[in-house]
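Practice problem 4.
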């Protein structure tokens, strides 16, 4: 087996085990959290002073345990249907303002979604 493939498989196994551990912790804490009735979801859980659905809480725990941002990462967030495409293009243009000539800028030929990584929540 090639070394890169071996490292990839080992990393995938570590991630899978880490996700399982996070989900096990989530299932253990679930009965201990305060509950409330939501208007969108039938039931909300209070965690760190926030009311979340169980689905959102599981996602937050996975992010807290496994997302490792780099010092150069830029995270931009908007509400749904509030201009994420425009905002992504603006951030891309600002970051790369010295890298491309105006006449040959990548935004003339491609959508901003194709030029920047996106985390969907």
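Answer key:
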């Amino acid at each position: 087996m090639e070394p890169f493939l071996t490292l990839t498989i080992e990393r995938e196994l570590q991630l899978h085990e880490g996700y399982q551990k996070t989900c096990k912790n989530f299932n253990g804490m679930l009965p201990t959290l305060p509950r409330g009735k939501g208007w969108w979801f039938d039931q909300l859980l209070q965690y760190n002073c926030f009311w979340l659905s169980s689905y959102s809480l599981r996602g937050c725990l996975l992010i807290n345990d496994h997302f490792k941002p780099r010092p150069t990462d830029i995270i931009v967030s908007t509400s749904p249907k509030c201009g994420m495409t425009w905002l992504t293009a603006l951030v891309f243009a600002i970051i790369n303002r010295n890298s491309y000539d105006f006449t040959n800028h990548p935004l003339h030929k491609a959508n901003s979604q194709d030029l920047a990584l996106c985390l969907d929540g």
